[in-house]
């Protein structure tokens, strides 16, 4: 049993609270609105609730589950109150910048380990939180030359308690990986929807859009500000993956232009094979 | 009650058989394999089954539900056996070429009306057929200067019986619409998967791929040959929509490059608004 503080009780923080409380930890939830704390209390997601960041001072492990642009500001505020040996982690979807800044901010005898659970939904508020959100999902934690092995072990034990699988990556690899499977796909889906929306046939397209279009563009219905955060904090990797995508699209475009049905078949089969190997 | 023949008992033909039989029509299923007919008989999807295309000779309405490249060859074979007043339709996902050829093939006193139900799944065989596949979906039928109003009325009555909503478009508009919401999105999803598959981080990407990547790329797991048919028979419209997509992506790419977070927000919100207005 550990004393765990969760700062930010949205989809991720709320789901983590449910899951860690069930696993037997003592969970303190910290939010900016009393209303959110009340919801979390009513749902029995937390043992204690506070509006005050200083109330992490007793916690062994602190998860910062705020929007990505608030992670470093929150760290700056809590740093003076961390107890000796405390481990801080986050759930931000890009890691290089955050981890570098966070490592510099940590007081002696406290530890930062970057994290990123690969779980999400369009809804981002506490109401969408689920106890099983992380079950069988991959939870990435980042390791650098400065990362404490002991801190990783402590964090790992807690994270595995959510039912997630753990994957250790360095921050740079993490950022390229999420650019490929999350941030670049969002850019593509946004561009796809906007291309349709600017067509002169858009009304008929809207009427005819079926499950294919619905699923391909689902991520577009998430919080736009999360998207801005992704593209801003992971710019370099996102642009690199957009470049790889454009190369791949140009190849297919040329094949279609040439009515090269054998070439189409090869591209379609290659993609199907890779995707079917994942899901 | 009409006598209806369905040629091709895959996902679409099979679902149509279930649905029209339930609506009280007499349904003859025609397939190339006895095994498929047996499955359809056992499932009570058809009243009669045949391996012989000539057995449409008694039918009022004939739906050609074969793969797209077989629609015209099948029409050529059944044309001499159609009874006077028979209405033939199809479910092919591109229409300009098929409708033009089909209209020329029809014997005097018989009618062709192109069709395309906007419903699908990855699985394309009879086993995947569902009685409610078309419920609340849009079923496009195409009208040209040669289209018989009476034939459209007969077809409409039958189609509405599946629970689908009907939309009349000319073949050219149809092809642009499906390029936008189906064929171009497939090209994009294929290119996205192949870009990830050719990354040096592809193993980690595969491990971390979550629901966002799964949904964005779902259509890639369909039958590759259907994709080849789409890109081949609807080449012009597909290339036009790929062009519109590339323009839209280039705009977003530039915004990301410039770290223009206000511009990102505008693009993300525009896409979300349009998508949320559809689903």
Please, how many domains of chain A?
Answer: 2
**Largest β-sheet summary of chain A:** 6 strands, parallel
Tally of alpha and pi helices of chain A: 11
CATH topology annotation of the largest domain in chain A = Rossmann fold
| Helix content, binned percent of chain A | 40-55%
Q: Which strand-content bin applies to the residues of chain A?
A: 5-15%
Within the largest sheet of chain A, what's the order of strands? 3-2-1-4-5-6
Oligomer: homodimer
Structural class of chain A: alpha/beta
Describe the protein's topology.
The structure is a homodimer of 279-residue chains.
Chain A: E1 3-7, H1 11-22, E2 26-30, H2 34-42, E3 48-50, E4 61-64, H3 71-78, E5 87-90, H4 96-105, E6 111-113, E7 115-117, E8 138-142, H5 149-160, E9 165-169, H6 171-197, H7 202-208, H8 211-216, H9 224-233, H10 235-257, H11 261-278
Parallel strand pairs in A: 1-2, 1-4, 2-3, 4-5, 5-6, 8-9
Antiparallel strand pairs in A: 7-8
Helix pairs in contact in A: 3-4, 6-10
Write structural notes for this entry.
Chain A has 279 residues and is an alpha/beta fold. Chain A folds into 2 domains: 3-169, NAD(P)-binding Rossmann-like Domain (Rossmann fold); 174-278, Orthogonal Bundle (6-phosphogluconate dehydrogenase C-terminal fold), CATH 1.10.3660.10. The first copy, chain A, has helices spanning 11-22, 34-42, 71-78, 96-105, 149-160, 171-197, 202-208, 211-216, 224-233, 235-257, 261-278, and strands spanning 3-7, 26-30, 48-50, 61-64, 87-90, 111-113, 115-117, 138-142, 165-169. In chain A, helix 3 runs parallel beside helix 4 (96-105) and helix 6 (171-197) crosses helix 10 (235-257). The radius of gyration of chain A is 21 Å and the shape is elongated. Chains A and B meet through helix 6, helix 7, helix 8, helix 9 and helix 10 of A and helix 6, helix 7, helix 8, helix 9 and helix 10 of B.
């Amino acid at each position: 049993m550990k004393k765990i503080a969760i700062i930010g009780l949205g989809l991720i923080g709320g789901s983590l609270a449910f899951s860690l409380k069930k696993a037997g930890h003592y969970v303190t939830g910290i939010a900016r609105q009393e209303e959110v704390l009340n919801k979390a209390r009513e749902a029995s997601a937390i043992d204690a609730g506070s509006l005050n960041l200083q109330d992490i001072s007793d916690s062994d492990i602190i998860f910062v589950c705020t929007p990505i642009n608030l992670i470093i500001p929150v760290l700056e505020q809590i740093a003076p109150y961390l107890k000796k040996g405390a481990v801080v982690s986050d759930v931000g979807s890009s890691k290089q910048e955050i981890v570098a800044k966070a490592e510099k901010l940590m007081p002696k005898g406290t530890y930062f380990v970057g994290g990123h659970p690969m779980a999400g939904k369009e809804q981002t508020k506490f109401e969408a939180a689920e106890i099983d959100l992380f079950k069988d999902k991959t939870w990435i934690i980042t390791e650098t030359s400065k990362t404490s092995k002991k801190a990783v072990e402590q964090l790992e034990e807690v994270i595995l308690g959510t039912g997630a699988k753990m994957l250790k990556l360095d921050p740079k690899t993490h950022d390229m990986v999420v650019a490929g499977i999350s941030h670049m796909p969002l850019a593509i889906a946004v561009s796809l929807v906007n291309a349709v929306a600017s067509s002169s046939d858009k009304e008929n397209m809207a009427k005819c859009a079926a499950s294919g279009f619905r699923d391909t563009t689902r991520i577009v219905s998430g919080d736009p500000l999360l998207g801005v955060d992704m593209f801003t904090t992971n710019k370099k990797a996102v642009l690199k993956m957009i470049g790889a995508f454009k190369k791949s699209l140009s190849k297919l475009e040329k094949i279609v232009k040439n009515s090269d049905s054998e070439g189409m078949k090869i591209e379609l089969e290659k993609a199907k094979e890779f995707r079917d190997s994942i899901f």
